[in-house]
Write a structure and sequence with these properties.
Layout: E1 2-6, E2 19-24, E3 30-36, H1 39-48, H2 55-63, E4 66-71, H3 75-89, E5 96-98, E6 105-109, E7 116-119, E8 127-130, H4 136-149, H5 161-165, H6 173-176, H7 190-204, H8 208-224, H9 228-248, E9 257-265, E10 269-278, E11 281-291, H10 298-312, E12 319-322, E13 335-336, H11 341-383, E14 391-400, E15 403-413, E16 416-417, E17 423-426, H12 435-452, E18 460-464, H13 467-480, E19 488-492, E20 497-499, H14 514-548, H15 555-565, H16 568-573, H17 576-583, H18 585-597
Parallel strand pairs: 9-12, 12-13, 14-18, 18-19
Antiparallel strand pairs: 1-4, 2-3, 2-4, 5-11, 6-7, 6-8, 9-10, 10-11, 14-15, 15-16, 15-17, 19-20
Subcellular location: Cytoplasm
Family: Belongs to the UvrC family.
InterPro entries: GIY-YIG_endonuc, GIY-YIG_endonuc_sf, GIY-YIG_UvrC_Cho, RuvA_2-like, UVR_dom_sf, UvrABC_protein_C, UvrC, UvrC_RNase_H_dom
């Protein structure tokens, strides 16, 4: 594959060839990855179209400063490469598939007398992995079936021939109850053990027919040799396998190896159901939500979800059944919309799952919003506020014995934290540990700026502290001439008392009240934000103090060193030549001499 870079103005020089294109912004960040049958036509369409392009796409095009392309052999190869790049980098304008779960696998270990157990960690050198399984219950059902059919060991013993021959082990309870044949004491050969394991692999792959054929042949062989007890055991295993298959059967067993993918949409999101079907049995069923980023149509959304899910669940399906008409087929991706028969019934089942998932998401979202609305309305009643407090801002100070004083402001809109509105403050006008004066400074700075920029004031201001901090904040609002334009309260930590300006006595909200829990959450978030910032500042100041104690190293030189090496420890480990490239030979020599002189001091 060949990768090349272009300026946005050179889009007309791109080749008329399949490939993947990547857009980068001014900071060098990857913002979008796309695939194309013809790179020239697809990329040109972003820059030539003036009508029919949505606002988000126009915004993305304005950000593009560099284009990189990679040529591939086919559109299907481009699709796979695009998926890998999106999965690795998560560009902000690409479709977001909302699924942050890790799924379990079944692992057959690479050792003498291999074991089978579940894991969520993929370490290829440990053995062969089967899955992932979208449902832990489904995985446990398969594992239970294998342990009922075969005598696979569950112990963690090292069953190397040397240790078995030395007689280092004794049989355990699993042997006595018939779940293990005692390979640890030489009662089962590894070749015999591996025959069972090979059949277990077929079941894990969904090929139940192979195991059924073997059980049937062994049953007939035992019966012909008049070994009726062994024949009966094979019949019981065969019945168990057929019962398991009947429970997981959703379609005609002749539908051998297919994926099913259906999509339903609303204005902002798409909801996709994905199923894997082998020999008529459903072995995977997964619902995902996709958040639309640009102006993607349902065909593009479905293909994006399908490729990612096939990659995730290691699909080798011969054909994919879908619920929409495919207008732009991709060579190498066999998508079929069945019109009649068993395949159509599978698509209908998948679509029903996608519709139910969409309804479930909408209901959950409605319930969450209803709860938030209910809580902020309850807060309005509890505090007797004139308006619903759908915009709340909370302030907190942080310092240790007056060192590195900082403060924070957090913002909640409609009961939810809005991180982009959070603010950090260095205390500039106050010396020593004076929380009251610090509070006055940051409240003044915050609302002076909002007034100057003519931005809306919050519906409620919360001060983390008691009467003293609240009085200081009130003074700030009075001096700005906006006191009374927005409610302000203080919340004291010890008894969760709520103070209003001018009132000597606090009010108490029921400890079990949702409105008090919201206030506590806002206060705790402001405290966390302030503490995190304070630690960072204190750490940086400590580094700076160590360096500026060295003769010839001032604040600017210390900042250059810390910016390059990141820590004093790494500066100590650096050679004189490395340091000289940053601050010059003379200062580097002085720093090294000082280090040698003070070594062990």
């Amino acid at each position: 594959m060949q990768t090349s870079s272009f300026a946005p103005s050179d889009y007309n020089t791109l080749p008329d060839h399949p490939g993947v294109y990547r857009y980068f912004n001014e900071a060098g960040e990857l913002i979008y990855v796309g695939k194309a049958k013809s790179l020239k036509k697809r990329v040109s369409s972003y820059f030539n179209k003036n009508t029919g392009v949505n606002l988000k796409t126009r915004r993305m095009v304005k950000e593009i400063r560099k284009i990189e392309i990679t040529l591939v052999n086919s559109e299907f190869d481009a699709l796979l490469l695009e998926n890998n790049l999106i999965k690795k980098s998560h560009p902000k304008y690409n479709i977001l598939l909302r699924d942050d779960k890790t799924y379990p696998y079944l692992l057959i270990t690479k050792e003498n007398f291999p074991r089978i157990f579940q894991t969520r960690k993929l370490i290829p050198k440990r053995g062969t992995y089967f899955g992932p399984f979208a449902s832990v219950k489904a995985m446990n059902n398969v594992l239970d079936l294998i342990r009922e059919l075969f005598t696979i060991r569950t112990c963690k013993l090292d069953l190397s021939p040397y240790k078995i021959n030395e007689g280092k082990y004794k049989v355990c309870l699993e042997y006595h109850i018939g779940n293990c044949q005692g390979p640890c004491v030489g009662k089962q050969s590894e070749s015999d053990y591996l025959k069972d394991l090979e059949q277990a692999k077929h079941i894990l792959k969904g090929n139940l027919g192979v195991a059924k054929t073997i059980f049937r042949q062994e049953m007939q062989s035992y019966a012909e040799n008049l070994e009726f007890e062994k024949a009966q055991r094979m019949k019981e295993k065969l019945d168990l396998l057929e019962k398991y298959q009947a429970k997981s059967l959703v379609a005609n067993p002749n539908i051998s190896n297919h994926d099913v993918c259906s999509i339903v949409m609303d204005e902002k999101n798409a909801y996709v159901n994905y199923m894997r079907v082998k020999n008529g049995a459903m072995i995977v069923s997964k619902n995902v939500e996709l958040k639309k980023k640009l102006d993607e149509d349902q065909e593009e959304l479905l293909i994006t979800a399908l490729i990612r899910l096939q990659d995730q669940f290691n699909s080798d399906a011969e054909e994919v059944l879908v619920n929409i008409e495919i207008n732009n087929p991709i060579e190498g991706l066999n998508l079929v919309q069945p019109k009649i028969g068993d395949k159509k019934k599978l698509v209908e089942l998948s679509t029903k799952n996608a519709l139910f998932y969409k309804k479930e998401k909408a209901l959950l979202q409605g319930l969450n919003q209803d709860k938030k609305d209910r809580v902020i309305k309850q807060l309005q009643q509890d505090l007797s506020l004139p308006e619903i407090p759908d915009h709340i801002e909370c302030f907190d100070n942080s310092n240790i014995q007056g060192t590195s004083p900082v403060a924070s402001m957090v913002c909640f809109l409609n009961g939810k934290p809005t991180v982009k509105e959070y603010r950090h403050y260095h205390i500039k006008t106050v010396e020593g540990p004076n929380d009251f004066a610090s509070m006055k400074e940051i409240v003044t700075r915050r609302y002076k700026r909002l007034v100057e920029e003519e931005k809306p004031l919050p519906k409620l201001v919360v001060i983390d502290g008691g009467k003293g901090q609240l009085s200081s904040a009130v003074e700030a609002l009075q001096e700005l001439g906006i006191y009374g334009k927005m409610p302000i309260i203080g919340i004291a930590k010890r008894l969760e008392e709520i103070y209003f300006p001018g009132d000597s006595y606090p009010i108490h909200i029921d400890k079990k009240s949702e409105s008090l829990r919201l206030l506590q959450r806002i206060r705790d978030e402001a405290h966390r934000f302030a503490i995190t910032f304070h630690r960072k500042v204190r750490s940086k100041n400590a580094f700076g103090t160590q360096l500026t104690a060295i003769p010839g190293i001032g604040e600017n030189t210390a900042n250059k060193l810390l910016s390059h090496f990141k820590s004093v420890k790494k500066i100590n480990e650096a050679s004189e030549e490395e340091i000289a490239t940053i601050i010059g030979a003379s200062k580097a020599k002085g720093l090294i001499e000082w280090k040698e002189k003070n070594k062990g001091a």
